Amino acid sequence: MSTCGRGVYLRGVVVGGVLPARTLSDGALTLPDRRVAEPPRRRARRADARKVTHHVSTITERPHPPATARPLVPVAPRDLVPPRQRVGAGDVAAVIKAYVALTKPRIVELLLVTTVPAMMLAAGGVPSLWLMAVVLVGGSLAAGAANALNCYIDRDIDQVMKRTSRRPLPAHRVSPRSALAFGLVLGVVSVALMAAFTNWLATGLTLAAIVYYDVVYTLWLKRSTPANTFWGGVCGAAPVLIGWAAVTGGLSATAWGLFAVVFFWQMPHFYALAIRFKADYARAGIPMLPVVASQRRVNVEILLFSWLTVAASVAVWPLGRDALGLSPIYGLTALVTGVLLLREAHALVGRARRGEQMRPMRLFHWTITYLTILFVAVAADALV
Ligand code: HEM
Ligand SMILES: CC(C)=CCC/C(C)=C/CC/C(C)=C/COP(=O)(O)OP(=O)(O)O
User: Fold this and answer.
1) CA of 57 to the centre of ligand 1 (A)
2) Where are its TM segments located (predicted)?
3) What's the complex ipTM?
4) Following CA atoms 208, 213, 218, 220 in sequence, which dihedral angle do they give, to the nearest 10 degrees?
């Protein structure tokens, strides 16, 4: 990380350390349909939220958002979700759909893109189908639990952001209490499954990933520091370690190498999204880097982490599963896709510097193509 980068991160971490977890803008907390009975602690948090909005506004040199929303109307918490809009218990398909949506299935599915090849490489071929099934089901339930709890904790933010406003909680299809219960049950089932059929390391990593995502990232860092993306990558890259540990009972240098690839990779992946939805994040008072720092600073980080991603992917080549390293299938794929990823990252930065339309979703989609191809190569390598 660059020296100037460290400066902003440290400042962010300090801010994160002194402010409480809930740090939304005035607008977010006073939306007409977020009518809650307001206990004194919540009122105090709102005062803190105004401080953070001010912090964000100061850094971006934008005027402080006016407090124009209507005052909160005290109602019982159970009335938070208007009964009319809740999914009727009789409509089984709609109920199932809403609960599945809580697990963010697209993200669960994508996390598995990295887990399966890691397991194959660790096993030097196709691992036992039983173990694959356990890790896939246990891992999906764990990621689903982590996501459902994230939906519960972030229901206020998700309501304010356009991108997330159709999720089950902001759309009032599931009550917050049901989402919380669902997330906790899924979490317990997933960890029990891993404990019963894998080993302690894989189980411990699974539990740690859930707790880390929901407590360290969602409750704390996401709302308080632009370093949220960096630290959030730890749990995003954890499935690689979980898969490897489930097969071997340990973690080798190659496992850590693959972890590093996903960890660095998620920075350009997420920053591209954060540039695209910068206004959303700003409205919700979330200090994502593009909201609180200059575009120049974001550009530097996109390039830095894209290069680190490619460097880590190439470093995995000689490591492999044993002294022989990985085959040229993997090595050449890492080089070619790496060049393409870097070309796209530099293209985005070039457009930003020239003041052209940035089209960040081009990089976002490229990051996905890159990681998918790279991990297909890992799997292919395990088969040869
Ligand atoms: C490593 C940690 C990761 C982080 C921090 C991350 C972050 C995110 C975020 C915040 C979103 C937006 C979610 C939404 O709109 O609901 C997203 C969407 C997406 N991510 Fe990731 N992601 C990670 C891993 C992955 C992986 C491993 C892949 C696949 C190779 C992937 C591919 C995608 C795709 C395709 C979408 C779009 C989903 C959709 O349109 O429904 N992500 N990611
Ligand atoms: C095995 C296991 C438990 C793995 C957990 C993996 C997991 C769910 C990783 C997500 C990583 C991450 C920082 C996502 C962004 O959340 P966000 O809240 O910023 O995204 P949003 O804005 O779309 O809600």
Assistant:
1) 28
2) 107-124, 130-153, 174-194, 200-221, 228-247, 253-277, 298-317, 323-342, 363-383
3) 0.91
4) 40
Q: How far apart are CA 21 and CA 40, in angstroms?
A: 16
Q: Which positions of the chain have pLDDT values less than 50?
A: 1-84
In this structure, the residue with its CA closest to atom 8 of ligand 2 is 143
CA-nearest residue for atom 12, ligand 1, is 273
Write the CA distances from 278 to 68, 247, 271, 286, 296, integer angstroms.
Answer: 22, 40, 10, 9, 15
- 101/223 same-domain check: yes
Domain with 158 in it:
93-251
How many structural domains comprise the chain?
Answer: 2
- Atom 11 of ligand 2, nearest CA residue: 236
CA of residue 267 to ligand 2 center, whole Å: 13
| Maximum pairwise Cα distance, the chain | 67
For 321-366, the pLDDT digits (tens) are 666 678 899 999 999 999 999 999 999 999 999 999 999 999 999 9
Instruction: For residue 273, give the ligand nearest its CA.
Output: 1
Domain-located, residue 203: yes
Tens digit of each residue's pLDDT (9 = 90 or more) over 238-292: 999 999 999 999 999 999 999 999 999 999 999 999 999 999 999 999 999 999 9
Same structural domain, 231 and 157: yes
